[in-house]
Write a structure and sequence with these properties.
Elements lengths: L3 H31 L4 E4 L11 H6 L5 H32 L4 E5 L17 H8 L1 H5 L1 E7 L4 E2 L2 E2 L15 E4 L1 E6 L3 E6 L1 H18 L5 H9 L2 E7 L2 E6 L1 H14 L11 E10 L10 E7 L6 E5 L10 E7 L1 E9 L5 E8 L4 E3 L3 E3 L8 E9 L10 E6 L8 E6 L5 E6 L2 E8 L3 E2 L1 E7 L8 E5 L6 E6 L7 E8 L5 E4 L5 E4 L2 E8 L8 E5 L6 E8 L17 E6 L6 E4 L7 E8 L2 E9 L9
Parallel strand pairs: 1-2, 2-3, 3-6, 11-17, 11-18, 19-26
Antiparallel strand pairs: 4-5, 7-8, 9-10, 11-14, 12-13, 12-15, 15-16, 19-22, 20-21, 20-23, 23-25, 24-26, 27-32, 27-34, 28-29, 28-33, 30-31, 31-32, 33-36, 34-35, 36-37
């Protein structure tokens, strides 16, 4: 056992090394700043998770409450010492009147899950942002993946390795062909490659007019960009060297400040892609294109030479408001298209879980299934089903047409891939169902709901093989001013002998449909949820997000249902939508919830 003196010596040594590192940092900065260096590129830092962050919780998950409290206090004390030291340093530097910019790399992540909001886990990132003077003289730079453009429309994506979050100021390409030792070159990736690109742009702007201040140079860079990146609800801009330098030249010549002046309204598209047979995330070199349905010359393209832009099979893009066909063309897989993706302003559109099929499968497969009444689970005879190639497609590439037999059964010959089955039958609202055709596929059913009577509302839930049991929940007002909660444990609500709300069809063995209806409406707010009963006690499961769950909301008098696809986020409870006095509001929130009897 070490003596008390040994412990004290160890603490002294640690503090000395800590202070020596800080002194070396500030000494080097002082040498450069006092020598009139205008742009200082920095790729230093270490990950130290702040209390309350997922990283801190993960690091301390096996500690007691008391130990976590000690770790929190120790972090806060050390960080405050670090910040006080650097605040005092930057205050002294401010008095010298020197002008400069520090361009700091945001940092990299070794694991995908750490890249969402952890850029502020770096002490120096936080000091630069939280110190009033330093913030005026600094830029924190994240990294984008390699991108390409068609017709000048660039679709950027965050590099999977790049730290991110509100603390990041700007993003730049992080995969570059870089110099290395022995007079050679090679591809390198990291925010340490992205930051020097921004440093170079800052230097070019200073060369236009050395009298520019750091705040002006930063404004030229941040306000003249090449589009946006949206990741995990945080939106940031991407650098554009020519725009930034041109803006500086224009200001130097005319005194007029230029900016993007971009009045375009944007929305977001998220989704997940997996291998149809292995059910593993697809992480391959390939292309994703978004083609504007109303102007096919507008094509937004993203590709990646480092094979990392699909992070665990997830994609997350920002696009101008409009309607798009999404083309997925990955090497080794059959080309697929998701049709008519509507992008609304500041709204996340969650795409259907897309299963892509190995392109070695070019033979014909016999696909079977039933037309199913979503109200009572019976099979519907004489249902006409037209098959179109692609997802949500009923306009082109018709490949087959069948009619169900007297038992509601259909059989069709199709090549492997994704199809839209457009089903119609007398007395039912026509439906569109995504059919995945793969070798040895199970039945792919088409659920149709009977035509609704005036005032009725119906939600139909379908999903895949797993999880086995998803449950629909509807919470809403009663005529007595209370709340009802319809779910498998309380399937109907009646008032004075009249059925107001009902779980018409419950499914506990995969696929669905599971159907909930409002027969008589009451003023107030109705809220619809989907709960992962199979994984109800988990606090980390993403099974619901990978279930392919889809909710179709039918409203009497409305020709087409409103379709909701499960968000590609972990959680066991999907809060789908609300209806208040006839107005539908999309919610699409995921959370963890074990007490299915208690929903509000």
């Amino acid at each position: 056992m070490q003596s008390d003196q040994d412990e004290k010596n160890k603490e002294i040594d640690g503090n000395f090394a800590y202070l020596n590192d800080l002194f070396s940092l500030t000494y080097s900065l002082s040498n450069m700043i006092m020598s009139d260096s205008r742009v200082i590129n920095m790729s230093i830092g270490s990950t130290t998770y702040r209390p309350g962050s997922p990283g801190f919780e993960k690091e301390n998950k096996n500690k007691s409450v008391e130990e976590i409290q000690v770790a929190t206090e120790e972090y806060n004390r050390e960080y405050q010492e670090y910040k006080n030291y650097l605040d005092a340093y930057f205050h002294v530097i401010e008095k010298t009147g020197k002008d400069f910019i520090i361009v700091k790399s945001a940092g990299n992540c070794s694991q995908a899950g750490d890249c969402i909001t952890d850029a502020d886990s770096d002490y120096f990132n936080r000091v630069l942002s939280e110190n009033e003077f330093a913030d005026k003289h600094s830029l924190i730079v994240g990294a984008t993946d390699v991108t390409t453009s068609v017709s000048g429309n660039v679709l950027h994506s965050k590099a999977s390795y790049s730290k991110y979050g509100e603390i990041v100021d700007i993003l730049a390409p992080g995969t570059v062909y870089s110099t290395i030792y022995n007079n050679d070159y090679e591809w390198m990736s990291g925010t340490s490659q992205a930051a020097p690109i921004v440093s170079g742009i800052a230097s070019l702007i200073y060369s236009v007019d050395s009298n520019f201040t750091s705040e002006q140079v930063i404004d030229f860079i941040l306000n003249n960009t090449d589009g946006k990146i949206k990741y995990n609800s945080v939106t940031k801009e991407v650098i554009h060297a020519k725009k930034a330098v041109d803006a500086a030249v224009h200001y130097q010549e005319t005194g007029e400040v230029l900016g993007n002046h971009d009045d375009t309204k944007y929305g977001f598209v998220q989704g997940t892609i997996q291998d149809a047979l292995t059910k593993k995330p697809v992480q391959v070199v390939g292309n994703i294109q978004f083609v504007d349905v109303n102007d096919t010359n507008k094509i937004y393209t993203a590709s990646d030479n480092s094979a990392n832009y699909l992070n665990n099979g997830n994609y997350d893009y920002i696009l101008p408001v409009g309607t798009y066909n999404m083309i997925i063309d990955f090497e080794g897989y059959i080309k697929e298209t998701i049709y008519n993706i509507k992008v609304d302003e500041n709204v996340v559109t969650y795409n259907i879980l897309l299963n892509v099929v190995d392109d070695e499968h070019h033979f014909t497969v016999t696909q079977n299934g039933y037309a199913v009444d979503a109200f009572d689970g019976s099979y519907i005879p004489n249902t006409k089903i037209v098959f179109y190639k692609g997802v949500f497609n009923t306009n082109e590439n018709k490949v087959a047409e069948v009619t169900t037999d007297s038992m509601g059964f259909y059989s069709v010959q199709l090549e492997p891939g994704n199809y839209t089955a457009y089903a119609s039958a007398d007395g039912y609202t026509s439906s569109k169902t995504n059919i995945l055709v793969i070798p040895n596929s199970e039945n792919q059913n088409c659920a149709l709901t009977p035509v609704l009577k005036e005032g009725e509302i119906r939600a139909v839930l379908t999903w895949g093989l797993t999880p086995r049991d998803l449950d629909s929940h509807l919470v809403g007002p009663t005529p007595e001013g209370d709340q009802f909660h319809i779910y498998f444990g309380n399937k109907n609500y009646e008032y004075q002998g009249t059925k107001y709300n009902n779980l018409d069809l419950d499914d506990t063995t995969s696929y669905g449909p599971e159907t909930t209806s409002v027969y008589v409406g009451v003023n107030g707010t109705y809220t619809y949820y989907v709960h992962d009963f199979s994984n109800r006690n988990s606090s980390s499961s993403n099974a619901l997000s990978l279930s392919g769950a889809q909710v179709k909301l039918y409203i009497a008098g409305r020709e087409e249902p409103i379709i909701y696809n499960v968000p590609n986020q972990p959680g066991t409870l999907w809060k789908v939508f609300s209806i208040e006095n006839g107005q539908v509001t999309s919610i699409n929130e995921m959370s963890f919830h074990s007490n299915y009897r208690n929903l509000e």
